[in-house]
Design brief:
Strand content of chain A: over 45%
Order of helices and strands of chain A: EEEEEEEEEEE
Largest sheet of chain B: 7 strands, mixed
Structural class of chain B: mainly beta
Largest interface: A-B, 26 and 23 residues
Number of strands of chain B: 11
Oligomer: heterodimer
Amino acid sequence: AQSVTQLGSHVSVSEGALVLLRCNYSSSVPPYLFWYVQYPNQGLQLLLKYTSAATLVKGINGFEAEFKKSETSFHLTKPSAHMSDAAEYFCAVSSGYSTLTFGKGTMLLVSP
Amino acid sequence: EAGVAQSPRYKIIEKRQSVAFWCNPISGHATLYWYQQILGQGPKLLIQFQNNGVVDDSQLPKDRFSAERLKGVDSTLKIQPAKLEDSAVYLCASSLNDRGAGELFFGEGSRLTVL
């Protein structure tokens, strides 16, 4: 079985501040991990993914995430938040042939 | 390259009525998924197709939900009869294959409101 826990349903930052969205996973086999972003009234778009290569993964729009096996974590970060980053972010896990399991999501709010 | 197309974007029905959603995946994508996203929650997989065969429908409420993917291309998800708790966004996604590391491409979703 696999699962994802996203800590914090809402995160608020000021424009220019560090963004940190937390994700912990549970998987009985080596996982594949993903971050997706969802803007209002739109579908989900892939930000980045970890597939057992480099543990530090760089994605689109300046986001990156680090896979830490010892902590079973895959936190998403961005050094400097922009107003356009305001959206809902979903962490997801799959393993081999299993389908994607999503967390409940974290809404990122960016204030000027 | 055209993305995943879904229709209708919005639908309002009364409980016990029926509704159908349509999805056309990205050309060449063998795997198609239907997810249900209830407000405040992450997407939950309802059904996964590989070409025109069902790979996983373990979370599909089969007493009221049905889905088909004739000819291995577009797909239809039907709800009959609808319940209040079916109010959600129904997301269709596709991928090249069913390997776990593959990227899913999502449509914009069909928002269902059941009154």
